[in-house]
Amino acid sequence: MSSLEDHLIWLDLHKETIIEPERPIVDPHHHLWPGESHYLLEDLWLDTHGGHNVKKTVFIECSQEYLTSGDIDFAPVGETRFVKKISDKARKEKNKTQIEGIVGHVNLTIGSDKTRKVLNRHLQEGRGHFKGIRHAGGWDHHSELSNSHHNPPKNLYIKEIFLESLRELIDLNLTFEAWQYHHQINQVAKIAESLPNLKIVLNHFSGPIGIGPYANQKEEIFEIWKKDITRLSTHENVYAKLGGLAMPINGFGFHKQKLPPSSDQILNSQRHYYDYTISCFGPDRCMFESNFPVDKQSVSYNVLWNAFKKIASGHTSSDKDQMFYNTAKSFYRL
Prior knowledge:
Elements lengths: L2 H9 L12 E7 L10 H8 L4 E8 L16 H14 L7 E7 L7 H15 L3 E5 L25 H12 L3 E4 L6 H10 L5 E3 L15 H16 L4 E5 L20 H19 L4 E3 L12 H11 L5 H15 L3
Helix pairs in contact: 3-4, 4-5, 6-7, 7-8, 8-9
């Protein structure tokens, strides 16, 4: 039995009745990848058709299936081509969850002229599905922590060449995914201030780190994070994804438990991040996200969305419509 099979058995040790099973959902953040720990269309459908009513999804880049020949700056276009083929396959079964958005990658340090050319190739391959890019900026000075998968330099987001390349997204009506660590929120605010017409969405609460040198600083980090999030939310071109806190780097340790977490455990340990973000941005700029299969290291899809529905339980039906469906649909033009 593979480690993946063992993990799926572990996730299956805790099951819950689905809350509000009819509520329509757009999951605006998931990945796909081949290989030993694969997560492809059938795996996605096993999760999205487990009881929650997930109508549409948005794929977010994860450095898969890059082109292996030609100009290296165009290599990420291979990922868009790869996902579009999967999306086309899904359209043959219209009663199932549809991948209607693709967010790819461009190395925004190559300059604005080259960025525009790579973006146009993404648009050609995506044929209406390509919605924007993510260039991860997560950087930390502690050697025991890993930087983001794009191996960014320190202060990537405030480098002039980066900002100039981002301007190309505005003219093409494309979005930018900001993914970095908790102590870099002000860099996202700098982007938002410099480019007020750029649509930006903050990934995973800006990645509050809870391991290594930060393991015993959860309360201090949260208080500083609140101040930074408050300032960031004043920029109306910035939206927030609600999720992505079940990764091991966040330090909640769910993946180490004998039994996987319940929705109540997630609620009790994490809701302060959700509640505060919603209070700052408002439901019309917030969208719940699964971040699967990355967060699947710690929790099942059904339990995670039950936790989201419990977090949203005190909000009006209209607010829930925004956070579970309409905000993502509007932001990504689905």
